[in-house]
Design a protein that fits this description.
By secondary structure, this protein is α+β, with helices and mostly antiparallel strands. The chain contains ten helices and 22 strands. The longest helix is centred in the middle third of the chain and has 21 residues, at 129-149. The protein starts with a helix and ends with a strand. The structure holds zinc ion (ZN) (2 copies).
Amino acid sequence: MTRIERLARALEDPLLVAGPPGILSGQANVCYLCGLRSTNAALLVEPDGRATLYADFRYASRAREVEGVSFVETSRNLLSAVAERLAGRRIAFESAHLPYAGYETLASAGVEAVPTVGLVERLRAVKDEDEIRAMRRAGALSDEIFGALVEEPFAGRTERELAWWIEKSFREAGAAAVSFDTVVAAGETASSPHAVPGARIIEEGLLVTVDAGCVVDGYCSDCTRTFAVGELPARLTEIYALCLKAQLAGLAAVGPGVSGRDADAASRASIEAVGLGWAYGHGLGHGVGIEIHEGPVLRPESTDVLEPGNVVTVEPGIYLPGEAGVRIEDLVLVTEDGYERLTQFPKELVTVS
Ligand code: ZN
Ligand code: ZN
């Protein structure tokens, strides 16, 4: 069954798919369903499985080659053109992706627009064999770059320099892109989970958090390791060990039928036991695929339940303001009986020079 057919089975009304903007994929849901990478396309999927692809001149030659859909070339003002054609019909739309102005365009043309949430995302959360192969390759390339990174000197270079080295290395090794801006955060900079690499010169005696990923065959990888630069104060070695314990507990909890909430809680126990629960302020992980953040989510308020084919991160962190930060992140595939790690780089504390 094609992806469009699987979506159609879940529909009551025709669904207009037009988002969200993804890394390299154009509109991630359109790309997922029919393979077209475009920043200005829409796909109308009918409950009976028929589908119409709309795109403007710039994407028309590729859109004509998409199998299993009928193609309609529109003006650059795509949504107005689509709205005119659908006037008088009842059409479901993706409320998380269609801007309010877009909704108004549909409504003022006389389309009865019905909001829906997550219909395509639900399918995307369970990867098929081709997607899993791409994600294994993206994970393996991450391992390769982390392996080369630890041979590089850290001390005396800036965070930004190292971040650029990582991004360049991914591209030179064949990645189509990096899956997000690389994080290299030394010392107290790392006490912010999404730190921006700056002009800070990395010194000995610090922890450096590196969070990086790449895009291979349209799919993202995501991996974090925290390294010791030279000799560390004992307290930082202890914090690292605590984070690793939490990461291993989180991993051990991952498997089919486990809720995102329970996996998250498993990773939290050891950190809370030493009174540092407050320093682990984000969730255990997130789904990864065409986009770097997608379903399912692993965090205290998650209602998701893991199933085979999900690809999620397991990434607890400990953030001590003004002092240091540690995060250790693996990308894992949920299997029939547990999980498979897609990022294999070692997690014992690695000392770089
Ligand atoms: Zn990450
Ligand atoms: Zn992540």
